[in-house]
Design brief:
The structure holds 2 protein chains of 2 kinds.
Chain A (H helix, E strand, L loop, with lengths): L1 H8 L2 H26 L12 H16 L22 H11 L2 H28 L2 H16 L6 H20 L9 H9 L5 H14 L4 E3 L2 E3 L4 H17 L8 H9 L3 H6 L11 H19 L4 E2 H16 L4 H16 L13 H18 L3 H11 L2 H9 L6 E3 L4 H8 L9 H4 L4 H9 L5 H7 L4 E5 L3 H7 L4 E6 L3 E6 L9 H12 L6
Parallel strand pairs in A: 2-3, 4-5
Antiparallel strand pairs in A: 1-2, 5-7, 6-7
Chain B lengths: L9 E2 L5 E2 L16 H12 L2 H27 L10 H16 L22 H42 L2 H16 L7 H19 L9 H9 L5 H14 L4 E3 L2 E3 L4 H17 L8 H12 L1 H6 L11 H19 L4 E2 H16 L4 H16 L13 H18 L3 H11 L2 H9 L6 E3 L4 H7 L12 H5 L3 H9 L5 H7 L4 E5 L3 H8 L3 E7 L2 E6 L7 H4 L15 E2 L6
Parallel strand pairs in B: 4-5, 6-7
Antiparallel strand pairs in B: 1-2, 3-4, 7-9, 8-9, 8-10
Helix pairs in contact in B: 2-4, 2-5, 2-15, 2-16, 3-4, 3-18, 4-5, 4-6, 4-14, 5-14, 6-7, 6-8, 7-9, 8-9, 8-13, 13-14, 20-21
Classes of the chains: A mainly alpha, B alpha+beta.
C-alpha cells in the first residue's frame, strides 16, 4: 500500500503538476526580469501592484489592534468616510507574509499562483479524464491567469472558486459528500474577496441546468434526482447564511455590492475597463476564442447546458471587464481539455517512469529554490516603480502632511510613510465623498485643477516623473520642485510673499477664464 | 436548410439557391413576352417586395444617420463623428486642389511642420467626388453624397446576403441587424468607396462560384478604380487569394468543406487576380499607391498606437457590445445548429472577427463578411418571397412614401451647420479670419483638416489627419508630447516657433496655457479656446493684475463667449 501511495506521488500526472508549477515560476521570473529591464517609473507589472500595500497595511493594523476598521483612517481627504476591510482575511494573510519581508510576499504569491494552477489542472482533469490533455489545456490558459498574478486577496478568491467548481463537478460525478465543504468555504470566502459572487453564480447555474432534461443538437442536460437537487439547495442556502459570518455581520455584503457599482470607479480603474487587444494576454485570449470557434465547426463537440451557459457569460464578462479574464480561463480550461483529449492519448500507468519523475520533480524544486528572487532583486524592482527615495526625503521633512499623491502609490505611502494620503486604491472609500472625481480632475488638468488643490489645502504633490500635472506645477511660480529622481518628483507650494497674485485670486481668474467669462 | 423561394430552379453544391443567369424562372418560363407584358413584368420587378425591402433599408439607414446627427447635436462633443469627421475636410481640400490645378500633389503643402515632405494623395479618386459634392451643394451636398454612398453600400450588402442565402427577407433582416454596428463607420470618407468595391468583388466572386464566369471580368476595372480610391483594395486581393487557394484542395472536416476547382476555373481566377494586380499600377503615382497600405502597417507605429480608429474594439460602448453580442450569437449558433461552411468563407470570417477586435475601424469589414452568414441563419425561420402574394401597388405607395420622407426630412443647411458647430471650431476660425494668428498655429489633430479647408492657404496647420506625413519627421510624436503635457511641452512649442494654439476647451494644455503668463487667452466658446503668445511676457503680479491687453478686443457674438485681456 505504501508502494502504491509512493507510485501515485511520483506518477506522471503528478510530474505534470510539478511541470505546471515550474511553468508558473518561470512565468513569474520572466515577468520580474521584464520589469527589471524597463526604464524606471514605467509602472511595469511585477509581483506587487499599487493595491498590495494598503491591503498589507490594513492587515497589519488588524493584527496589531485586533479590531476591524469602520472608517477611512488612511487619508486626510475623506477621513470620516465609511470604509470596511471587506477583504480582511486576505489582508491578514498578506500581512503575515510581509513580516518575512519582500521574499515572504513573493513566496506567498508563488504559493497562491501555484495553488490556482494545480487546482485548475485538477478541475480540467475532472472534466475530461485525461491528465495530459488537462495539463496542455492549463498550460494554454496560463498566460490568461498569469497576467493577473500580483499579490492581492483576489488570488485567494480564485482558489476558492476553483474549489467550489471542483466540489460541484465531483458532486455531479456522484460524490455526494463533496458539497459539504462549501458552506465553511463561503465563510472564509466572504471575508476574503468579493469573488464569492462568482461562487454563487456557478452554484446557481449548476442547480438551474439540472432542472430540465434536454437533448438539443449538441447541448445536453440531465435533470437532478429529487435527493440531489435538495442537497444542492440546502448547500446553497447554508452558503448564503454563511455570508453573515463576518466581523461586520451582513453589512459586508451590502458594502461589497455598493463598491462594485460605483460609476467613477468602474469608468476609470483599469481592471474594470474593457479588454484591449493590444496586450499579449488579450491576444492569447482572442486566439483561443477563435480556435474554439473553429473547433465548433470542424469537430462539433458536445456540451452540458450549465458549462455552456457559464462559458458564454465568462466570455462576455472578460471582454467587457478585463478583470474577469481569469474567470474565463477557469471556465474554459476543462472545455479545452475535453477538446484536446480527442488527440492526446490518456495516461498509461504501465508505461510510467517513477524514478525519472522523481528526479525531474526534485530538479524543478531545486531550481525554484535556487533561482528564487533575492531580497535585493525584489527591492530593486520596488525602487524602480515606487518613490522609495522620495519617501526617504519626506521622512527627513515630516512637516509636509497634506500631500497629493499618485493613485497607484497611495498604498505604498500608507505603509511606508505612515502618514495619511490624498488617495489610494480603495476607491470605494473616496468616491462617495467626491474625492476620487476631484483627483481625476486634478491629474487630468481640468480647468479647476489649481482651485481643487486649494480646496484640499494641498501643500505638496508627489508625482510620477512624466506626469502632466508636474508640467503645470513647474511653470507656476507658487510651486517649487523640491525633489526629483528617475521615478518621482516632489513639488512644494511656496509660502512666502511676493509670489505673484494671491493664490486664491489667481484660481478664481483661472476658473473664470476656463468658463469663458467676459469679465476682465 | 429550408430555401423557401418558389422561383428557384436549381440548388448549388451546398443546397443554396442558384439564380438562373437569364433571370427566367419556372414562374416566368413560357409567359407572354409582348412589349406591354414585358413592361408589366418590368414594373412588377421595380415595385416588387424585395425592392420595397431595399427601399426600407435605405429609409432605415437615413433614420440612423439622422439620429447620429441628433446625438452629436445633443452631446456637443468636440470629437464625436457625425456625417463628417476630422479627415473629411482635408480630403475635400485635396480634391479641390486636384480639380483646380489638374495635378496630383507629391509633397505636403498644408503644414508648416512637414513642409515639402514626400506625400501622395493616396485616395484622390475618392477625394475628387467629395470636393465636387462640396462645391455643388455645400454641407447638403456632402450629406447627400454620404447618404448615396452608404445606401449603395447597404444595398450591395443586401444583394450579397441574398445571393448567399437565397432568401430576400432573411437578407433584409441581416442587414437591419448589422446596420447599427456598421453605422459607426458611416462618415464621409473615401473608405466608403473602398467597401463598395469590396462588396462588388465579393458579389462577382459569388456569381462566379454560382456558375457565371463572366462576372469576374469586371474586377480588373474595379481594382484600377479601387487603388486610386482607398487602401482597402488589399482586402479585395485577400478575398481573391483565399478563394483561389481554397479551390486547391478537397476537404471535408466536420461542417467545413472545400471543393477542388476545375483547372479552367483555377486558371480563370488566377488570370483575373493577375490582371487586378497589374491594374494596381494604373495610378498617377505608378506603383506607389499599391505599396502604401503595407508601408502604413509596417512603418507607422505612432499612428497606429495613437489614432482612435486603430484602437481595439471598445466593448464598453454600445457598438462594441452589439459586436460582442453578435459574435456570441455566432458561437451559440455553431453549437445549436448545423451549418456548412466553405473553407474560404470561414477563413475570411475568422479573420474579420480578429481584425475588428484588434482595430475597431474594421467593424465594417466584419459586417461585410458576417451579413451573409446571418442571412443564412435567419433563412431557417423566415419563409421565402412569394411573388404570387406580392402587393405591387402597396409597395409602390410605400416606396414613394419612403422617398418622400427622405426628401422632406433631409437636414437643412442650418441643421447641418449646427452639427458642425458642435464638433468643429467654427467660431474660432471666424475669429482667426478677422484676427490672423501672429505666427505658426498649434492645433488639435482632429481639427487639422477643418482648418486646412476653412482657413486661408497662408495659415498652415501644425498637424492633421494625414498621419503618414507627420510620422517620419517625429512631428506626430512631438504633437502627442505637447498635447499630453510632457515635461518638454512648452519647449516644444518654442521649438516650432508656435505663436498661437487652437485647442479643445477643457484640454489639459488649455489649463497649462491659461496659467502660464507668456500665453494669453483671446477667444473661447463651447468647443474651443484660442491662445496667442504674449510677446512681451508679463511676469510680475502688478503687470498681471493690470488687465490691459495689447491685443485687439474681441466682441462677444451669439453662441460664443470671448475673453478680453490678460490674466
Amino acid at each position: 500500500m505504501q508502494a502504491g501511495n509512493l507510485r501515485k506521488l511520483l506518477s506522471f500526472p503528478v510530474f505534470l503538476g510539478a511541470l505546471l508549477v515550474a511553468g508558473v515560476f518561470l512565468a513569474l521570473s520572466v515577468r520580474l526580469q521584464d520589469a527589471a529591464s524597463q526604464p524606471p517609473g514605467q509602472n511595469h507589472p511585477s509581483f506587487v501592484e499599487g493595491d498590495t500595500w494598503w491591503h498589507i497595511a490594513a492587515g497589519e493594523r488588524i493584527l496589531a489592534t485586533h479590531t476591524w476598521p469602520t472608517t477611512n483612517y488612511f487619508s486626510f481627504t475623506a477621513p470620516d468616510s465609511e470604509w470596511i476591510a471587506y477583504e480582511w482575511l486576505g489582508e491578514v494573510t498578506m500581512a503575515l507574509a510581509a513580516r518575512r519581508g519582500l521574499v515572504g510576499m513573493m513566496a506567498l504569491l508563488f504559493g497562491l499562483a501555484s495553488a490556482i494552477v494545480l487546482l485548475l489542472y485538477y478541475y480540467a482533469y475532472l472534466g475530461c479524464g485525461n491528465s495530459k490533455a488537462a495539463c496542455a489545456a492549463t498550460a494554454l490558459v496560463l498566460p490568461l491567469v498569469g497576467a493577473f498574478f500580483t499579490l492581492r486577496p483576489q488570488l485567494l478568491g480564485y482558489v476558492f472558486l476553483l474549489i467550489t467548481l471542483i466540489c460541484l463537478e465531483r458532486f455531479r460525478q456522484g460524490r455526494q459528500k463533496a458539497l459539504w465543504i462549501l458552506p465553511p468555504l463561503f465563510v472564509l470566502w466572504v471575508n476574503t474577496h468579493g469573488t464569492f459572487v462568482l461562487g454563487f453564480l456557478v452554484l446557481f447555474v449548476y442547480w438551474a441546468a439540472g432542472l430540465v432534461d434536454l437533448r438539443f443538437e449538441r447541448v445536453r442536460s440531465e435533470r437532478w434526482s429529487r435527493a440531489r437537487r435538495l442537497h444542492l439547495e440546502i448547500v446553497f442556502l447554508l452558503s448564503v447564511l454563511a455570508l453573515a459570518v463576518t466581523p461586520y455581520g451582513t453589512r459586508l455584503i451590502g458594502y461589497v455590492a455598493n463598491a462594485s457599482s460605483q460609476p467613477v470607479n468602474l469608468a476609470n480603474i483599469q481592471e474594470w475597463q474593457a479588454l484591449g487587444f493590444d496586450q499579449l494576454f488579450a491576444k492569447v485570449f482572442l486566439g483561443l476564442v477563435l480556435l474554439f470557434l473553429l473547433a465548433q465547426v470542424c469537430w462539433r463537440p458536445k456540451y452540458r447546458l450549465g458549462e455552456l451557459a457559464l462559458l458564454l457569460f465568462a466570455l462576455y464578462a472578460a471582454c467587457v471587464h478585463q478583470r474577469f479574464v481569469p474567470f474565463f480561463a477557469v471556465i474554459f480550461a476543462p472545455i479545452l481539455a475535453t477538446l484536446l483529449a480527442r488527440w492526446v492519448p490518456p495516461y498509461q500507468p504501465a508505461k510510467d517512469q517513477y524514478a525519472l519523475n522523481a528526479v525531474l520533480v526534485a530538479l524543478f524544486l531545486a531550481a525554484i529554490v535556487g533561482l528564487f528572487p533575492s531580497k535585493r532583486q525584489l527591492g530593486q524592482l520596488i525602487a524602480q516603480n515606487y518613490p522609495v527615495r522620495a519617501i526617504r526625503y519626506l521622512q527627513e521633512h515630516p512637516q509636509l502632511s497634506r500631500m497629493l499623491n499618485e493613485h497607484s502609490w497611495g498604498g505604498y505611502l500608507i505603509r511606508s510613510l505612515r502618514q495619511k494620503v490624498f488617495i489610494d486604491g480603495r476607491e470605494d472609500a473616496y468616491e462617495p465623498a467626491g474625492v476620487f472625481e476631484d483627483y481625476l480632475d486634478i491629474t487630468r488638468l481640468d480647468k479647476r485643477t489649481l482651485m481643487l488643490l486649494h480646496k484640499y489645502d494641498v501643500e505638496a504633490c508627489l508625482l510620477e516623473r512624466a506626469a502632466p500635472l508636474g508640467t503645470l506645477l513647474e511653470s507656476l511660480p507658487e510651486w517649487q520642485k523640491a525633489y526629483g529622481d528617475e521615478v518621482s518628483e516632489l513639488f512644494i507650494r511656496r509660502t512666502g510673499e511676493g509670489q505673484g497674485l494671491a493664490t486664491a485670486d489667481q484660481h478664481k481668474l483661472l476658473v473664470r477664464a476656463g468658463e469663458g467669462d467676459t469679465r476682465p | 436548410m429550408k430555401t423557401g423561394n418558389p422561383t428557384t430552379t436549381s440548388l448549388g453544391a451546398n443546397n443554396e439557391r442558384v439564380i438562373p443567369p437569364n433571370g427566367i424562372t419556372s414562374s416566368t418560363a413560357g409567359a407572354d413576352y409582348s412589349p406591354r407584358s414585358r413592361a408589366a413584368i418590368g414594373l412588377r420587378k421595380v415595385f416588387s417586395f424585395p425592392i420595397f425591402l431595399a427601399a426600407l433599408l435605405v429609409g432605415g439607414l437615413f433614420a440612423t444617420l439622422s439620429l447620429n446627427l441628433q446625438d452629436v447635436a445633443t452631446n456637443k462633443s468636440a470629437h464625436t463623428n457625425s456625417f463628417v469627421e476630422g479627415d473629411t475636410w482635408w480630403h475635400i481640400a485635396v480634391g479641390e486642389r486636384i480639380l483646380n490645378t489638374h495635378t496630383w500633389p507629391t509633397s505636403d503643402s498644408y503644414s508648416f511642420t512637414a513642409p515639402g515632405n514626400d506625400w501622395a494623395a493616396y485616395e484622390w479618386l475618392g477625394e475628387v467626388p467629395m470636393a465636387l459634392a462640396a462645391r455643388l451643394g455645400g454641407l447638403r451636398g456632402l450629406a447627400a453624397l454620404l447618404i448615396a454612398l452608404t445606401s449603395i453600400l447597404m444595398l450591395l450588402l443586401y444583394y450579397y446576403s441574398y445571393l448567399r442565402s437565397g432568401n430576400v427577407k432573411a437578407a433584409f433582416v441581416a442587414c437591419v441587424v448589422l446596420l447599427s454596428p456598421a453605422a459607426v463607420c458611416f462618415s464621409l470618407r473615401p473608405q466608403l468607396f473602398g467597401y463598395i468595391f469590396l462588396l462588388i468583388t465579393l458579389i462577382c466572386l459569388e456569381r462566379f462560384r454560382q456558375g457565371r464566369p463572366r462576372a469576374l471580368w469586371v474586377l480588373p476595372i474595379v481594382f484600377a478604380l479601387w487603388v486610386n480610391t482607398h487602401g482597402s483594395f488589399v482586402f479585395g486581393l485577400m478575398a481573391l487569394g483565399v478563394s483561389w487557394a481554397a479551390g486547391l484542395v478537397d476537404l471535408r472536416l466536420g461542417s467545413l468543406e472545400a471543393e477542388r476547382s476545375a483547372p479552367q476555373q483555377r486558371r480563370h481566377i488566377g488570370l483575373i487576380t493577375l490582371l487586378c494586380v497589374l491594374a494596381l499600377n494604373l495610378t498617377p503615382y505608378g506603383t506607389r499607391l499599391a505599396a502604401n497600405p503595407l508601408l502604413m502597417a509596417s512603418s507607422q507605429p505612432v499612428n497606429i498606437a495613437s489614432v482612435q480608429e486603430w484602437q481595439p474594439m471598445p466593448f464598453e460602448l454600445l457598438p462594441g457590445k452589439i459586436f460582442l453580442g453578435i459574435v456570441l450569437l455566432f458561437l451559440v449558433a455553431q453549437i445549436v445548429f448545423r451549418f456548412t461552411y466553405r473553407l474560404e468563407e470561414m477563413t475570411l470570417l475568422l479573420f474579420a472577427i480578429y481584425a475588428a477586435c484588434v482595430h475597431r475601424r474594421f467593424i465594417l469589414f466584419f459586417v461585410v463578411f458576417f451579413a451573409p452568414w446571418l442571412a443564412k441563419l435567419v433563412a431557417q425561420w423566415v419563409p421565402g418571397y412569394q411573388p404570387a402574394k406580392d402587393q405591387y401597388v402597396l409597395n409602390f405607395v410605400l416606396i414613394g412614401a419612403i422617398a418622400f420622407g427622405i426628401v422632406k426630412l433631409f437636414p437643412s443647411n442650418r441643421e447641418l451647420d449646427e452639427v458642425m458647430a458642435d464638433s468643429f471650431p467654427r467660431g474660432a476660425v471666424a475669429h482667426l479670419r478677422q484676427h490672423p494668428a501672429p505666427g505658426p498655429l498649434f492645433n488639435e489633430y482632429f481639427w487639422g483638416g477643418y482648418l486646412i479647408h476653412s482657413l486661408d492657404a497662408r495659415q498652415k496647420v501644425f498637424i492633421d489627419g494625414r498621419a503618414d506625413v507627420y510620422e517620419d519627421g517625429g512631428v506626430h510624436s512631438d504633437y502627442l508630447r505637447v498635447i499630453d503635457l510632457d515635461r518638454q511641452a512648452l519647449s516644444l512649442l518654442r521649438k516650432y516657433g508656435i505663436e498661437a494654439c487652437l485647442i479643445r476647451r477643457g484640454a489639459p494644455l488649455a489649463t497649462l496655457l491659461t496659467a502660464v503668463p507668456e500665453w494669453q487667452l483671446v477667444y473661447g466658446d463651447d468647443i474651443s479656446v484660442l491662445f496667442f503668445r504674449h510677446t512681451n511676457a508679463v511676469t510680475s503680479a502688478a503687470s498681471r493684475s493690470d488687465g490691459i491687453s495689447s491685443l485687439p478686443r474681441v466682441e462677444a457674438s451669439s453662441g460664443s463667449r470671448t475673453l478680453v485681456g490678460t490674466l
